[in-house]
Hints:
The protein is built from no helices and 21 strands. By secondary structure, it is an all-beta fold.
Amino acid sequence: KGDNIPPPLPFPRIQQVAWAHPKYGGMLASCGFDHRVIVWRERDSAQGGGWGEAWRSPPGLHDASINALAFAPHELGLVLACASSDGSASVLTYNQGTTQWDVAKIERAHATGALAVSWAPAVPPGALVSAEGAQKAVRRLVTCGCDNTAKIWELDEAAGEWKQVGSDLAGHSNWVRDAAWAPNLGLPRNTIATASEDGTVRVWTEGEGGEWSGQELCQLGTPAWRVSWSVSGGILAVSDGNNNVTLWKEQMDNKWQKLS
């Protein structure tokens, strides 16, 4: 309330905001039609309280609207991924030495526009049931866009580049508006949900060999806008073009049941 509300942002339309992990203090990021990302930090009482701009992306980060952004799991550090209508995605990593954000680009991630981005859990699948546990944090993310697909990307640390892993997640017949990687808590399975302009939601599951298979969760009869997982990954929320939000839960037979 009051002074705790960030000041009005200096561009006409904000596409998305995202909170950083609480370990980094009060911090959030916003993106919009002006091709920029702004990171905001909550000031302490000695600084007068309220919120202030901590960083603004330089010109040229993207050449069109930035449609979505997401902070990485805190185990990976202070890292932010963005998806843009220019077709590319970017990964911004805070550099403590320079106190600036280093930029890595995924060019032509979706040739006709990238619409959403979501990070994989940092804990690798199977770590909870493995005797070795989590050996190394996972650096993967999923993007989706106007080419009717979702794509998975992984950081090649030796080359310092983000590279696509496997084939496109193709099954929708129109723009994929959103993609959400489910929390797995170290369990053996990776799961991604996608929402499309074609009115369907699909759930993708990674097999033991790294291949992904998808099943249609529902036909909404109206564009599916957003998908969001519960903290445990057991329930999926879906918002649609009829201004409805529905909840879905997977049953023992691998079919999905509508809860509300």
